[in-house]
């Protein structure tokens, strides 16, 4: 359904900068069912019932009331239509004959606008356009210097107001930039921002596979703004106001977007020349890059282009994958959630053992997800001051091997109990020897106890037992797969009209369900009931699985009724792994023998080749190592063939 607070974009700029022309150009090129365009002055005239000349003669208090009524009228229309509003407006008026500008911003403006875009064209161009248009003759005498001063005063004040009121702000110099901003940034539904952003970042990771102060004692974002505007780093005030939220990182992207691409790239190049790696980090990267079983991925909330240039100078034996922030064309911004998602994808889809190295609170989620975690402790004057406090409360949540590394070795260690000091040279970069099994056992749940009753009842067989297995498959798929794989949102029609967000399994349409014949088929049908957009495949033997069946798939779900020794499941998983696809593999089963899934001695991990990660979802586990035959064989009971041995 339509949101109560619509998205309203204020298109600001000094008189004569071309706002109205740009608004009309956008109106003719963008979808009219998604955007509504307004001239602020015309709406004021409509609301007050007089022309603008009459409006100008009103007392200031009445003008303010009418301006507020106008912006609220626009917001009401957009809320009703569900469209994004684009409104031309002004923050202040300032003729050169006046000592100070006259501010016309109202509280209603700051409550209503979700985004403000400033048209930052050259003062010379504004002066020329004023002289050429009859409607601007009253401002034709303003000098270029005054116009420039007016623009800078207005942009500075707008930036302050937007930060204080959590309004997105940026400036544009070219019309096509604003069109792209509206379609690629503003139009993205708020509820989908995080999901789409993570998907874009992971897509970039995938492409590169076919950071920041952790690598060196430098804040690349701070260095970027010191190069461009030494007296004004907009990120400081913005993060203070917005916190480290998705909105904050999106706003940072807009700040970078204000600069032409060539200026952005030149500044990144200058910053990169000031950045050096910790010597210990460079040695570790050289060691990792020289091994054919180790890859290097740099994930930074800062500027990816800067670290790309820094690492090019390091001349590593292999090219590292870099996931970092940038301008709008970058396609994504990096948040703590993105960092953790990158680690998870490397683990679950590429079946790797991940060592994560971080130095700030923005790295906590990533460190928590990793198999081995390193907290870099730098100089007290530049390191994250909040990291020590956060680690004291989060230390127990970090899993696997966790340590702190002092860079340089002379700096004081973090006072965190249970966080030992180590060195980067001590990191284990050899290939893991055992598979990692993540077993989700429903056996203790009351729902599972009800469902398993029919599957264990000797009087139930044939179609009735098939139906019981089907219900088990549906239950396990809906209860556990959303946590194992994740969810994605989609737009659906609401019964009360309009649209609302629905949810389904992440990449459901890129999921293949493999039923191991014949005992796994009924349960697999239940999984398919829960995931109707997934593909379905029967497999009697591992060779039945061909590349064409699973190419391009994100999730592969292997279903069997019972896992005894684990040998059959291992053969099918090994077959899938031979195709070297970046896909998550999940096994769904009714009963899993406990011996089969023991960490090092179990039949399943011993039969699996190489190293990888496997999630197993089971209705129950069993210590009973009995293997059914004839009348007790699950397949025979399912299909009324208990007379067969």
Automatic annotation (TrEMBL):
Molecular function terms, GO-annotated: L-phosphoserine phosphatase activity; magnesium ion binding
InterPro entries reported for this sequence: HAD-like_SerB, HAD-like_sf, HAD_sf, P-loop_NTPase, PRTase-like, PRTase_dom
Top-level taxon in the UniProt lineage: Eukaryota
Residue intervals of the Phosphoribosyltransferase domain: 446-641
Pfam families: AAA_17, HAD, UPRTase
An example Gene Ontology biological process: L-serine biosynthetic process
GO cellular component term of the entry, any: cytoplasm
Official protein name in the record: Phosphoribosyltransferase domain-containing protein
Taxonomic source organism: Cercospora zeae-maydis SCOH1-5
